[in-house]
Design brief:
Elements: E1 20-27, E2 31-38, E3 43-47, E4 52-59, E5 62-66, E6 69-73, E7 78-81, E8 87-91, E9 95-102
Antiparallel strand pairs: 1-2, 2-9, 3-8, 4-7, 4-9, 5-6, 5-8
Length: 106
């Protein structure tokens, strides 16, 4: 069993002035944790994932589109995505977001 602890997720990523950065902060056989930093106006265009996922917004504000439905996301917003759900993210301000990909079910 792997143990990982992070006390300040926002401090683990430097948001670029114009762009998006991603950094895998943890990975094992069951889960992959990827921390994203988005400059205002940056986006992840609509896509799907074969795995279930969760989005946790650490800082900033974004517009998330889930299967055509728009949701405003801010600090503390948590979203679960079932596999193959079309989704996209647009940063309205600089954003730090944690993505958890569930590699397998237990």
């Amino acid at each position: 069993m792997s143990i990982a602890a992070f006390h300040d997720l926002a401090a683990l990523v430097d948001i670029p002035a114009d762009g998006t950065i991603s950094r895998t902060i943890y990975q094992d056989s069951a889960i992959k944790a990827v921390l994203f930093g988005f400059a205002a106006g940056q986006e992840l265009s609509e896509h799907t994932s074969a795995m279930a996922a969760t989005l946790q917004f650490v800082s900033g504000n974004a517009q998330v589109t889930l299967n055509g439905e728009q949701i405003e996301a801010g600090p503390g917003t948590w979203i679960h995505l079932p596999p193959r759900l079309p989704h996209s993210v647009v940063a309205l301000t600089p954003v730090v977001m944690l993505l958890l990909l569930m590699k397998r079910t237990v």
